[in-house]
Design a protein that fits this description.
Layout lengths: L1 H11 L8 E5 L2 E4 L3 H5 L5 H5 L3 H17 L4 E3 L4 E6 L2 E5 L1 E5 L17 E5 L11 H14 L4 E6 L4 E5 L6 E4 L4 E4 L2 E3 L1 H7 L9
Parallel strand pairs: 7-8
Antiparallel strand pairs: 1-2, 3-6, 4-5, 6-7, 8-9, 9-10, 11-12
């Protein structure tokens, strides 16, 4: 009887499709935020994979700024660039900045060398296996720094805050109106970039 019940429960358990996996940390899949709505057919996969207009605009204006101001020594990635840190550790990055000399050969696989800088816009992962979004943020940030990323910048659209992390330095928080230093002589404020692009931001509800 017990065996039959276990088999029935096993059949009921849905296999989660690979396309809903956002990252892999410590051998465990981290699913995309909203994946449960896809499994229950309340939303499509496309609906949870898309970014808000605010997130998209921020990524777009930052990439545009960096491409204008960085020298040809650097390459700016976008669109959930993958990073393979080690076995069972695959992370996604919104805007990685690589030194071209370290990424001179392109492949069909995730990058296996650390970017110089990583910029993330909001937490896009489902954090059910973490205490909260911030535990996920701390864990991912530390993994990037341990992999020799020199600077990790998180932009949080709801709070309009920026957190900058570097190895062996205190992590600190800025407002959108504050200046973010990417490299010496290359800096911007998010609010200024948004204003220059002609966008207005709706008040949070």
């Amino acid at each position: 009887m017990l065996v039959a019940e276990k088999q029935k429960a096993k059949k009921k358990r849905k296999k989660i499709p690979d396309y809903l996996i956002y990252e892999v940390m410590d051998g465990k899949p981290i699913y995309r935020k909203g994946y449960q709505s896809v499994l229950s057919k309340k939303k499509t996969a496309e609906e949870i994979m898309g970014s808000s207009t605010l997130q998209s605009a921020i990524i777009s204006v930052i990439v545009k700024f960096l491409n204008r101001h960085l020298s040809d020594e650097y390459w700016v990635g976008a669109s959930e660039s993958g990073l393979h840190i080690q076995t069972n550790q695959n992370l996604s990055m919104d805007i990685p900045i690589y030194e071209v000399s370290k990424l001179s050969v392109l492949t069909q696989h995730y990058a296996e060398v650390p970017p110089k800088i990583v910029i993330e816009v909001d937490v896009e992962a489902d954090t059910e296996n973490f205490a909260n979004d911030f535990e996920y943020y701390f864990s991912k940030t530390q993994k990037l720094l341990d992999f020799q990323v020199e600077k990790v910048i998180w932009i949080f659209t709801y709070a309009k805050k920026v957190i900058i992390s570097e190895p062996n330095k205190p992590w600190f928080t800025l407002n959108w109106t504050d200046t973010i230093e990417i490299m010496p002589d290359i800096q911007f404020s998010i609010q200024t970039l948004i204003d220059k692009a002609g966008f207005k931001i709706a008040e949070s509800k």
